[in-house]
Amino acid sequence: GDPDQPIIMGRTYHEDNRTPGSLPGTKTQMTIRSKTYMGSGFNELKFDDATGKEQVYIHAQKNMDTEVLNDQTVTVRRDRTKSITR
């Protein structure tokens, strides 16, 4: 690659860039979290790979839109719950 245009392949956590959760309690989770500009909100995509508790979690601070340009299939093999509150 071009050393003047590096490609970031990953990142590590440190004092200025802390993990989204506390360790070791969140050691099975991989989280991508943004921060609202000039606010206290955030958007989040989290994967939890704890054995028997695997989960994909999406948090939208305000609106969430999905666009599918072709087919979409949704299969739920157990329960499904949907709540709309104001």
Automatic annotation (TrEMBL):
Residues 1-28 are annotated as: Disordered. Residues 30-85 form the Gp5/Type VI secretion system Vgr C-terminal trimerisation domain. It comes from the Bacteria. Transmembrane segments: none annotated. InterPro entries: Gp5_Vgr_C. This is Gp5/Type VI secretion system Vgr C-terminal trimerisation domain-containing protein. It comes from Escherichia albertii.
